[in-house]
């Protein structure tokens, strides 16, 4: 049996997340305390008692989700879970995957992610950028609609999440046009998402380039087990490769279907989502209906995952 683990990114956060897990595994709150020391504010209190709007701010969400993924993995290890054979992360989740694989220390990763969040938030003025979800169309149809909408601004597919589920990003005006074209092409649903940062689009190229300074300052190492990059489904190799690909990742599309299929082709017999929420486990089930999938977002689900 060869387990793969996947780590969620932005969108899986919620106020009160991991409270149940923390009640059984003290390492969860210790992880948040460690993060608070780096960040300069009480992250656990914010996550447990703060406003949803505050937690949803990119500059808060990104370090919070890195911390949540790391805390879930540490709880897994505290419960007797073995290291997985492979890990991957969806967008921001790649940082949690790299921490789990000992490719970077948690504190260093927090510093990089905090800078990443600031750069992404500042890259495009609020109200100018947007993201939208498209359901029920093949990839080529989505790409064609974006190409046509790009006549008035940036409109690009940025997350290939499952067959028939693609997220697009770019300038809001261009995405408005793309949604009209996508509905005309037969999309079952095409709707704007409640975010203003057009993540993984070419509008983030400057942010990715600016992130190189923070990446250069961080101490990266060769992972102790395979970390599959979500931009192309290929493993990270050494420190220089990690730095280069994390810089590019800010403005490169997430190919989640390719990533999950690569892990299965490389021998994964089960997949465990390590972090709050169940977004990725749902995507993985749709990508490979025959692969057992579980998640770790509570005491009960962790115990069940140990049996998968």
The average pLDDT score comes to: 96
Unreliable stretches = none
Helix run count: 15
Number of DSSP E strands: 10
Shape: globular
| Terminal Cα span | 9 Å
Helix content: 40-55%
Kindly describe this structure:
The longest helix is centred in the N-terminal third of the chain and has 21 residues, at 58-78. Strand 4 and strand 5 (165-171) form a beta hairpin. The model has no long low-confidence stretch (mean pLDDT 96). The chain has helices at 19-24, 27-39, 43-49, 52-55, 58-78, 93-100, 106-123, 139-149, 172-184, 205-210, 212-217, 239-249, 256-265, 279-287, 299-305, and strands at residues 3-7, 86-89, 129-135, 155-162, 165-171, 189-192, 226-228, 254-255, 270-274, 293-296. The chain has a five-stranded parallel sheet, sandwiched between helices. By secondary structure, it is of the alpha/beta class. The chain is globular, with a radius of gyration of 18 Å.
Entry summary:
The protein has 308 residues and is an alpha/beta fold. Helices cover 49% and strands 16% of the residues.
């Amino acid at each position: 049996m060869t387990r793969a683990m996947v780590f969620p990114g932005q969108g899986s956060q919620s106020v009160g997340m991991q409270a149940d897990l923390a009640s059984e595994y003290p390492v969860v709150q210790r992880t948040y305390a460690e993060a608070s020391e780096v960040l300069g504010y009480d992250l656990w209190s914010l996550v447990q008692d703060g406003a949803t709007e505050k937690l949803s701010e990119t500059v808060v969400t990104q370090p919070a989700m890195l911390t949540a993924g790391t805390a879930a993995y540490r709880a897994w290890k505290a419960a007797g879970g073995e290291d997985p054979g492979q890990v991957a992360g969806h967008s921001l989740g790649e940082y949690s995957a790299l921490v789990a694989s000992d490719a970077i220390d948690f504190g260093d990763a927090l510093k990089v992610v905090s800078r990443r969040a600031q750069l992404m938030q500042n890259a495009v003025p609020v109200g100018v950028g947007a993201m939208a979800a498209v359901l029920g169309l093949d990839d080529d149809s989505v790409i064609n609609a974006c190409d046509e909408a790009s006549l008035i601004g940036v409109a690009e597919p940025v997350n290939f999440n499952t067959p028939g589920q693609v997220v697009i990003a770019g300038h809001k005006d261009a995405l408005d046009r793309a949604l009209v074209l996508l509905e005309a092409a037969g999309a079952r649903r095409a709707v704007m998402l409640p975010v203003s940062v057009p993540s993984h689009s070419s509008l983030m190229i400057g942010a990715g380039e600016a992130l190189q300074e923070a990446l250069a300052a961080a101490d990266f190492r060769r992972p102790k087990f395979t970390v599959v990059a979500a931009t192309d489904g290929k493993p990270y190799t050494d420190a220089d490769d990690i730095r280069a690909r994390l810089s590019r990742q800010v403005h490169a599309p997430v190919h989640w279907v390719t990533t999950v299929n690569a892990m299965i082709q490389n021998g994964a017999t089960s997949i465990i989502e390590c972090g709050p929420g169940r977004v990725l486990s749902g995507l993985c089930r749709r990508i490979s209906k025959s692969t057992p999938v579980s998640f770790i977002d509570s005491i009960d689900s962790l115990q069940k995952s140990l049996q998968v």
